[in-house]
C-alpha cells in the first residue's frame, strides 16, 4: 500500500468546500505554504503528492512549480486531479508526473502530446465513461502516455478488479496484453514496486490463477479462480 496525504490545494480550493471538507485538503496561500505542505506530507510518510486543478481557487503557477520541485527533491511523484484541457496542459507545464483520472472534457492535441511519457490512471467507470473520456484515453495512449489501471475506489466502491473498467479500457483501444500490462508491470514500474508486476523465478508469489488467457479475454482478470499473496492462498 502506497499512501498519499491530503491534497495540496489553494485556500478554499478543491476538495475543501465539498466532499473533502473534513481534512482532505491542505490549504496553501503561497509558495512557502505549498512547499511546507509537501514537506509535511513527506515527513508523515506520504508516497505521492496529489494537487488538484479543478477550477475555482487554485494554487498559482509559481506555487505549483515550487510544490512539484519540492516533491521531486523528496523523490515523490506528483499526480493531479485535472479534468479539462486547461488544467491538463498546466499540470504538464509545471512538471507533474501523472493524471489521477482520465480527463472527462475533450483534450486538445497540445494537451495530449504534453503527456507523452507521463502516466494516466484510467478511472473511466468512476467518472461516467463518457465518449470524450474514452477518446482522451485512446489518444493519450497513442501519444505515448503510460496507462495505469485504476478505479477511484471512493467513487466506484468496487472491492475487486472492476470488469466495467476492463471493458472500458478495451473500448479505449487497449489490447488484452496492454490491459494486463496496465494492471501489472506498468504500475509496478511506475510506482517503484518491483519485483512485483511480473511472474518470474525468485519474484514474490503474489498472483492470480485465471480461467482463461487474459491477453485474449481480459474480463477473466475480474473473476480469478484463485488468489495468492506472497505464496499464501487467500
Walk me through the topology.
Layout: E1 7-10, E2 25-28, H1 31-43, E3 48-53, H2 61-73, E4 77-82, H3 85-93, E5 98-99, H4 109-114, E6 119-121, H5 131-142, E7 146-148, H6 153-156, H7 163-171, H8 176-183, H9 185-190, E8 207-209, E9 226-229, E10 232-233
Parallel strand pairs: 1-2, 3-4, 4-5, 5-6, 6-7
Antiparallel strand pairs: 8-9, 9-10
Helix pairs in contact: 1-2
Features:
34% helix; 234 residues; 16% strand; five-stranded parallel beta sheet; alpha/beta; 9 helices; three-stranded antiparallel beta sheet; single chain; globular
Description:
This protein has 234 residues and is α/β, with parallel strands linked by helices. The chain contains 9 helices and 10 strands. The strands form 3 sheets. Strands 3-4-5-6-7 form a 5-stranded parallel beta sheet. Helix 1 (31-43) runs parallel beside helix 2. It is globular and about 55 Å long. It starts with 6 loop residues before the first strand and ends with a strand. The model has no long low-confidence stretch (mean pLDDT 96).
Amino acid at each position: 500500500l502506497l499512501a498519499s496525504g491530503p491534497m495540496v490545494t489553494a485556500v478554499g480550493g478543491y476538495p475543501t468546500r465539498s466532499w473533502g471538507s473534513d481534512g482532505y485538503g491542505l490549504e496553501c496561500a503561497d509558495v512557502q505554504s505549498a512547499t511546507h505542505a509537501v514537506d509535511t506530507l513527506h515527513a508523515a510518510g506520504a508516497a505521492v503528492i496529489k494537487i488538484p486543478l479543478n477550477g475555482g481557487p487554485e494554487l498559482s503557477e509559481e506555487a505549483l512549480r515550487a510544490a512539484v520541485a519540492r516533491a521531486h527533491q523528496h523523490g515523490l511523484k506528483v499526480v493531479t486531479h485535472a479534468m479539462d484541457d486547461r488544467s491538463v496542459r498546466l499540470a504538464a507545464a509545471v512538471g507533474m508526473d501523472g493524471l489521477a483520472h482520465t480527463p472527462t472534457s475533450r483534450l486538445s492535441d497540445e494537451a495530449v502530446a504534453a503527456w507523452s511519457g507521463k502516466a494516466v490512471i484510467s478511472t473511466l467507470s468512476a467518472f461516467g465513461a463518457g465518449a470524450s473520456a474514452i477518446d482522451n484515453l485512446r489518444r493519450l495512449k497513442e501519444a505515448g502516455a503510460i496507462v495505469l489501471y485504476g478505479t477511484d475506489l471512493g467513487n466506484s466502491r468496487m472491492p475487486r478488479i472492476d470488469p466495467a473498467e476492463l471493458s472500458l479500457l478495451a473500448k479505449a483501444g487497449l489490447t488484452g496484453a496492454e490491459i494486463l500490462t496496465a494492471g501489472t508491470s506498468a504500475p509496478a514500474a511506475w510506482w517503484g514496486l518491483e519485483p512485483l508486476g511480473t511472474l518470474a523465478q525468485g519474484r514474490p508469489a503474489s498472483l492470480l490463477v485465471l480461467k482463461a488467457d487474459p491477453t485474449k479475454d481480459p474480463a477473466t482478470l475480474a473473476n480469478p479462480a484463485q488468489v495468492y499473496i506472497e505464496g499464501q492462498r487467500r
